C-alpha cells in the first residue's frame, strides 16, 4: 500500500527518505511543498527531479479532502462540507475576524459526530461516527487555505513572492479554533499531533490556536503538559451540577468542582485568559442567580466569558434562546463584578454554520 505522506510526522518523513535512499533535505523540501506551498500532487513539486517525482508516485500519495459544498452567509461566514476517504463527511467554518478585513478564524472539526451528547448541540445528536486522523484535521486548514487563495496556489518557488505583490486584498487565516464537530479531548492523540503539524510545519503560533472542550478533565491536564501555550476554551454552560448534568451529561463524569479545579491549575502566560463559553438557554441557565454563581465559580481564574444565545437546531424541543434583554442583564451582572463578558453574535446562522448547528448534512438531508 502507498504511504500517505501527510500521515507522517517530520521525523517519520526523514526516515522515509532515508529508507528509499534519498538525502534528508528532500524531506524538508517535501514538507515545504505540502504545508507551506499547499501542493496536492507530486507534479506540483517542480524542484524535485522528474525521476524522483515518478518514484514517489509509485510508493506514496498526498491525501486531500474532497469539497462537496461551500456555502457563503450574508455576514461573510463560509461553511465547507468535506468528504473523507471513507465517505464520511465533516464541516469547517471560516469566520471573518472583527479585527481587520480579509482576516479569518477557521473553526475545524476533530471528530465525525460527537459522543458527548450535549442537549443543545446538533453534532451531539449525531452520536460519534469516528475520530479524525491528525492529517484529516490539518487537511481542513490546508483545503480552506487553498480555496481562499486568490488564484491557484503558486507552484514555482519564486511565485509566492509574486503573489504577495499582485494581490493586495489577500485573505488570511489568522486563528484556528477546535470548535467544529467533535470533542477534541476524546481524540487527544490525533489532536495533539495535528497541533504539532499546525505549529511546527504550517507555522501557526500556539497563541493563535484554541482548543475547546466540554470539560474532559484529564484532557485539560494533558494539554497543559503536552502542548503548553495553546489557548483553552471551556464549554461551561451551567453554574450548578444539577443543570449541567441535564444539558451536558459529561458533567456526571467530571463535575463542576473538578472541572474548575483543572482550570485553576491550567498554566497561563501573563496576558492570556481561559475562555468560558456559556450557551444561554431561556429559563434554564439565564437567571441573575446563575450570573452571580458564575462570578463565584470563576473567581481567581483569569477568564473571559462568551455568552452565546442558543442557536436554534431546526428540531422541535423545549430549548430556546432567552429574550435579548435577559442576556444583556446577565452580561451586566458579570461586567459589574469586573469580569470580561462578551455577547457573541451568531455568525453564519443563515447557512447553519453557527455554533452547535454543524451536522454534515449533505447526504442525510
Ligand atoms: N466539543 C467542544 C467543541 C465543539 S462545540 C466543546 O463542546 O467545547 C463548540 C461550542 O459550541 C461549544 O462552546 C458549545 O457550547 C457551543 N454550542 C453547541 N451547541 C450550540 C447551540 N445550539 N447554540 C450555541 N452554541 C452552541
Ligand atoms: Fe460534542 Fe461539543 Fe456538541 Fe457537546 S457541544 S455534543 S461536546 S460538539
Q: Could you write a compact summary of the structure shown?
A:
By secondary structure, the protein is an alpha/beta fold. It contains twelve helices and 14 strands.
Structural description of this entry:
The protein is α/β, with parallel strands linked by helices. The chain is elongated, with a radius of gyration of 22 Å. It has 2 domains: 3-61, DNA polymerase, domain 1 (Orthogonal Bundle); 66-351, TIM Barrel (Alpha-Beta Barrel), CATH 3.20.20. Helix 8 (217-226) runs parallel beside helix 10 (256-264) and helix 11 packs parallel to helix 12 (324-336). The strands form 3 sheets. It has a 10-stranded mixed β-sheet with strand order 3-4-5-6-9-10-11-12-13-14, covered by helices on one side. The chain has a two-stranded parallel sheet with strand order 1-2. Residues 155-168 have low confidence and may be disordered. It has helices at residues 10-19, 25-36, 50-59, 122-126, 134-148, 159-166, 188-201, 217-226, 241-247, 256-264, 288-298, 324-336, and strands spanning 3-4, 60-61, 66-72, 78-83, 89-96, 103-107, 111-113, 128-131, 172-178, 209-213, 231-235, 274-280, 303-309, 341-343. Residues 114, 116-118, 121, 123-124, 182-183, 214, 235 line the site of iron/sulfur cluster (SF4).
